[in-house]
Task: inverse folding
């Protein structure tokens, strides 16, 4: 397994630290890292020509170089807006105040610059496990008694309908598939271990496709906006924390 990896830090020592951690992780696991370094974040964005260009980005939050971006949060927003919901963004910072800001750009993890290898290894193990789970499939039976296979990572959200408790539609970037005879609560049980959460009683959202959110609304990778209801808000935030930002 080889992962295309970017390390963006305006301090050479910061880049060296991540390089050494990745080298040690390679010796422990055999996983290869194709690494490119950036001290200027503008060059990182200039290279980022399409979604999937990198698998993992280690991004310093307090960057002093670069003309177009104030900090690492702004760079992450630019990457998510490509859009690229799949790249794992790992923020590296000495200041925990940035942890909450990471919610808005779907950060995978937050690391202190003085991180131990044990902590780094735990983070990387989680990232690799999530990547392997991305190949998981779900079988969907349509109203024509045909079976469709969908990659779970490609599902942006699942929608149910008022007054039709046994009908749901799976929304992906390029297709919509409707399944009858199944409730959204049942779908939620099927997908609960794959990073999905209810935004409201009609929408089950894949959190990997959340670009940003406020206390009552979220924006998805397909540029749609979905309301977060008061009833589901706390559970959504809690599950987002557990699945996206492992602290």
Result:
């Amino acid at each position: 397994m080889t992962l295309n990896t970017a390390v963006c830090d305006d301090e050479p020592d910061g880049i060296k630290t991540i390089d050494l951690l990745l080298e040690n992780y390679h010796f422990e696991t055999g996983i290869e890292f194709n690494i490119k370094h950036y001290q200027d974040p503008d060059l990182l964005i200039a290279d980022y020509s399409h979604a999937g260009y990198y698998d993992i980005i280690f991004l310093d939050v307090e960057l002093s170089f670069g003309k177009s971006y104030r900090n690492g949060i702004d760079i992450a927003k630019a990457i998510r807006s490509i859009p690229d919901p799949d790249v794992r963004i790992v923020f590296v910072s000495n200041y925990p105040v940035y942890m909450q800001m990471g919610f808005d750009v779907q950060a995978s993890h937050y690391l202190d610059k003085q991180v131990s290898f044990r902590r780094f290894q735990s983070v990387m193990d989680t990232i690799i496990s999530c990547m392997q789970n991305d190949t998981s499939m779900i079988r969907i039976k349509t109203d024509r008694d045909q079976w469709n296979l969908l990659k779970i990572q490609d599902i942006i959200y699942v929608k149910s309908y008022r007054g039709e408790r046994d009908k749901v539609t799976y929304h992906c970037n390029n297709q919509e598939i409707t399944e009858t005879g199944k409730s959204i609560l049942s779908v939620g049980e099927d997908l609960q271990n794959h990073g999905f959460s209810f935004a409201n009683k009609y929408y089950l959202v894949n959190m990997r496709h959340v670009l940003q959110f406020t206390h009552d609304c979220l924006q998805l990778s397909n540029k749609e906006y979905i309301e977060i209801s008061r009833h589901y808000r706390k559970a959504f935030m809690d599950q987002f924390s557990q699945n996206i930002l492992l602290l």
User: Anything to note?
Assistant: The chain has two domains: 2-133, 137-243. The CA atoms of residues 55 and 87 lie 5 Å apart. DSSP finds six helices and 15 strands in the chain. The longest strand covers residues 164-171.
